[in-house]
Design brief:
By secondary structure, the protein is of the alpha/beta class. It is 34% helix and 22% strand.
Length: 312
């Protein structure tokens, strides 16, 4: 059994190939994805354990064990840690253990890029990243696989972290700068990606221009909210997984209050990629991708890492 650390996982996940692998998975129906298991852990009720299995791809079965500790930022640690166990589907024999944190950040970014390929306008120029963590850092490389972004702007509550990410993106060859004023940056953006653990809205519908695509990847619990109700009721919504409707705060709250109905949130990324539903339908349309992370993405990414390993 191989043990693949973060560096090995990163080396096996070319963004173009990863977006293509996710496109293939979302367009097909061979992967089985049971409902995830979610449990509060320890004395800190804000800490969460997630178990996410999937199987049916290249003869593999995978299980991700992930934890979410919102207070980790104050310790200089990522809020999400994960380990991924890859098994032979036919026998159950272990094949590899992968760094699930690295796997998660890249498959999340690639899923956002895949959604943007169907939902963002072709002529987008300015991309706003709200958040400066590991997922945000992976977004530009994956978006570059589907759109020609001219400038990336970064806003974070911690201005120092925003500046550090900008410097990192510049060294990677991206035109990037800090957005000191979030609302002004939202008004100027063609695409907005939020990757935070926010529990109150950061992106307000009143500030989002017609034609903007909003990519919401941070919220995966009902009390996590990155965009307000005004935006969600104005946007064409696409979800990556059925449970997003009731676990992402941007949808769970409006659905409970009746400002959104189930028919407003029935379009999945799989429907769009497979051609069963339209993506963007008008240039002035506001679109929103609500991503809570489906286990099919993890399995596709892990399988890609395994296939990229040099033969011995």
């Amino acid at each position: 059994m191989e043990v693949l650390d973060a560096a090995a996982v990163r080396a096996g996940l070319d963004p173009v190939e990863l977006v293509a692998a996710l496109r293939e998975v979302f367009a097909g129906d061979e992967v089985t994805v049971p409902e995830r298991t979610l449990q509060s852990i320890g004395s800190d009720s804000s800490a969460t354990l997630l178990l996410k299995p999937a199987w049916g791809l290249h003869g593999l079965l995978g299980v991700k064990v992930a934890t979410h500790h919102p207070a980790n930022g104050s310790l200089g640690l990522p809020s999400i840690h994960a380990t991924y166990l890859l098994l032979d589907e036919a026998t159950g024999a272990p094949v590899a253990v992968l760094d699930g944190t690295e796997l998660t950040r890249w498959r999340t970014a690639a899923a956002s890029a895949l959604a943007a390929d169907h939902l963002a306008r072709e002529d987008v120029g300015e991309h706003l990243l709200v958040g400066a963590g590991n997922v945000a850092a992976s977004i530009p490389a994956c978006y570059a696989a589907v759109r020609d972004i001219r400038r990336t702007r970064v806003w974070a509550r911690d201005a120092g972290r925003a500046a550090a990410l900008v410097e990192r993106l510049r060294t990677e060859g991206y035109a990037a700068d800090v957005a000191p004023d979030l609302r002004a940056a939202v008004r100027a953006a063609d695409v907005i990606t939020t990757a935070t653990s926010a529990t109150s809205p950061l992106v307000l519908g009143r500030d989002v221009r017609p034609g903007t695509h909003v990519d919401l990847v941070g919220s995966f619990l009902p009390d996590m909210v990155e965009a307000d109700e005004e935006l969600m009721t104005a946007a064409r919504i696409v979800v990556d997984a059925p449970e997003a409707r009731h676990t992402a705060g941007e949808l769970a709250g409006p659905l409970a209050r009746g400002t959104l109905t189930e028919s407003d949130v029935t379009t999945s990324l799989a429907d769009v990629v497979a051609g069963r539903a339209a993506g963007r339908t008008a240039s002035e349309q506001i679109t929103a991708f609500v991503s809570v992370g489906t286990a099919a993405e993890d399995l596709a990414a892990a399988a890609l890492v395994l296939r990229s390993r040099p033969s011995t």
